[in-house]
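W.,

You were right to be curious about this one. When I first looked at the sequence I had no strong expectations either way, so I just let the prediction run and decided to look at it fresh. Below is the sequence, 567 residues in total, followed by the output.
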Amino acid sequence: MKNKLFVPSGLLRFFPGRLRYLLTFKRNGYQLLNTGPYVTVSSPLNVSKAGNRHEAGMRMKSGIGIIKKLFLWYALLIFIFYGTLVILYIDVNQMMRLSDNIINRYQKVSSFSKKMIENLLSMEENEKKYILLKKKDYLDFFVDAREAFEYNLNQVMQLESPEYQLPDTWRDLFDSYQDFSAGKGDRSTYESSDTLWIAEQEIDAWIKKLRRARLENEQNIILANIELNQWGQSAVKYGVAGLGISIFIGLIWILVIARTMVRPLRALGKGIRSITKERFSQPIDIRSNDEFGELAAAFNEMAKRLKEEELMRAEFITTLSHEIRTPLTSIRESVNLIVEKVMGPTNRQQTKFLKIASSEIGRICELLNHLMHVSRLEESVFKVEPVPADPLVFVIKSIDHLNPNAKGKGIHIDLKIPPSIPEIIGDTRHLQQVMLNLLGNAIKFSRTGSKIEVIVTHDDKRDVVQYAVSDNGDGIRPSEQTLIFDKYYRGREVREHMDGVGLGLNISRQIVEAHQGKIWVESEVGRGSTFFFTLPTAAGFNGKNNHRQPHGKLNSERPEGGKTANE
């Protein structure tokens, strides 16, 4: 049974041109198959052995994992949060108690005492009126006022509880009234009496006690409000302190996260970008006993396997190219001999088909040359011999070479150059291939009867010479513009209508970057594209030209502008 690793094809964007095509390796027991939405990497390893290795790797990771770290941090915040809540609860509970005293006791005492004073005054007034006029209405008013006074007094006395003690003034008033009431009769006693039922001195004494009780109650309200304010300030203080401690702990934890999580993530991101940019990644050194350590180990294993598969693929392409080149050369020479009638005369129809065969053989030879070129670039056999050179020679040669093809489509190539331009440092043999690729693409995708512009400029601030090739083609969708310099990538519409394998721009990029230059593209769908690349002058060579792309358009690896379709 084979051990298989399924990789979603969406991840293949991180490995441009390496896992995007159908290719089978049967060396060292590995196979790499494109199976639609997934790429399958198969090996004859026994599943149980692979599982044992995985378990052994997991046993090595005995430290605190990310989940545990986050849980501990969460538990600490919860502890601080609930500790703050407990303190706030105590303060708020005390504030509620004070508010209850103010609203349910002090305010009621104030209200009842005011009514009781009004009741006493009403009793005194109606008592005098009844004695003078002998009208029963005044007697009724007196009795009602006395009953209301007794009711209000009882209501005040009922407010007393273990949590709230009435001032002594209220107890004196209650006892005084009880003593007075004990010697008085019922309503008939009042009707038969010609003297005051309650002496003015008694009523005045009660009113004085009520006023003194009201004053004490108002003082208690003021003190309760002061205490309430103090408890409120205490609640705010502890709340702010708890919030401050939480923020401080959060900041400390962010620093911990930055060290234990961000650093490994950056290392992993750097490794992924290095695979995209340099095809291979150096091992990632993450010394942590958590999931990041496991992820780094898995990434290193993936990078190692990818490098092995890439080397096998490159060797396969090299071997295939060499094996096909010899018989293909024999076939081409044989066809040419027949076309030249060395083997005897041929009729018109035979000559036509022989020319078609010769053309197709030439196309296959060109494809093999591209494959061999890419293989040499990947094997570091590709050497650039930069020397001071005329910046226009390879441009003019490329235009002369492709001008017949352009005229065949009615396309005019316009070269624009400044009055003076310094020498560049480069290998014109390889630079001419870059210009041929860009001009060839421009001719291929430009409309019949249109114009192609080749513009050469000098940027003395960056010590570079900039080349631009503009066409009037259809451009390309923004979603595909980040892929145009990847190996074997071809736009969707291009795949349907034109031949090619998608190597020209990738080769151009590698040549330009080998010259310490940059290459990028700007394009709008329906309005054409402009390819740019820069080459250093003598002053900007040897790493002095750390220049950026104009308008901030380009990360040197993946342009963000528009682009024409790739070959």
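Here's what jumped out at me. The two ends are 41 Å apart (CA to CA). And, maybe more interesting for your project: The chain has a mean pLDDT of 75.

Coffee later to discuss?

I.
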